[in-house]
């Protein structure tokens, strides 16, 4: 297997795509507005990673709308390297048709969705029709199926265990659970053990060091580390910052003796998760 650095989770937006309320809330929790503009992404992601996933977003209840064509036009500058994911909101009954159009007309390679941020039941009829279209078109899903910062977000739809039913009903549909499903990291690990077509990424977890370390050790115990992907969640971290943080996961300071997560598995996660895991058809 040829080594290849893939950043499986990056964002691209302009401030107006987030909506005033979301910009203010995100800024208050991150210490300021994060730059996820095309020039910043090109420098800090494309300048480091050999391949990368770029996410559009659509969470209507929060006023977050990163257009699909904005993302696909940017990704067209990096043929063979960039993989655009469309944003979808399953509160919209037209969502299944939007998936069909975006795949066939814009060339999106996957779908980003979040019951937590968009506020929909992941088992609802519209969502199930989206999954059916995605499975037929062979485009994977990337889930924000985890905790959320926004006050209006709906944590009752966030537990990764809710994806078990979807995994059973759509066994050929490949999926990624972002952020190792935090805070439900244990649930994510047992989900991975059960469904080999489901993966998880570590984006935005490395700096939550204790949480990330424990999740990794649990994944090691359950023997599912081969389903873990590297991701930065740019602009939360750059690709390089995420790698540096990941490689420091065992560094607890002098006098602290902790079991070590194997460094060879860290490098394996960073460099040896081929793009064919999500797109085996090429």
**N-C termini distance:** 16 Å
The counted number of beta strands is 10
What's the CATH topology label?
TIM Barrel
The backbone outline, from C-alpha atoms, is: globular
The percent range for helix content is: 25-40%
> What portion of residues belong to β-strands?
5-15%
Relevant terms:
282 residues, alpha/beta, TIM Barrel, 8-stranded parallel beta sheet, 11 helices
Summarize the structure.
With 282 residues, the protein is of the alpha/beta class.
List the helices and strands and how they pair.
Elements: E1 6-11, H1 20-30, H2 38-46, E2 51-55, E3 57-59, E4 64-66, H3 68-75, E5 82-87, H4 95-106, E6 110-113, H5 115-118, H6 125-137, E7 141-143, H7 163-169, E8 175-177, H8 185-194, E9 198-201, H9 209-221, E10 228-229, H10 239-247, H11 263-271
Parallel strand pairs: 1-2, 2-5, 5-6, 6-7, 7-8, 8-9, 9-10
Antiparallel strand pairs: 3-4
Characterization of this structure:
The protein has one domain (6-277): Metal-dependent hydrolases (TIM Barrel, Alpha-Beta Barrel). It is an alpha/beta fold. The strands form 2 sheets. It has an 8-stranded parallel beta sheet with strand order 1-2-5-6-7-8-9-10. Strands 3-4 form a two-stranded antiparallel sheet. The protein contains 11 helices and 10 strands. It is globular, with a radius of gyration of 18 Å.
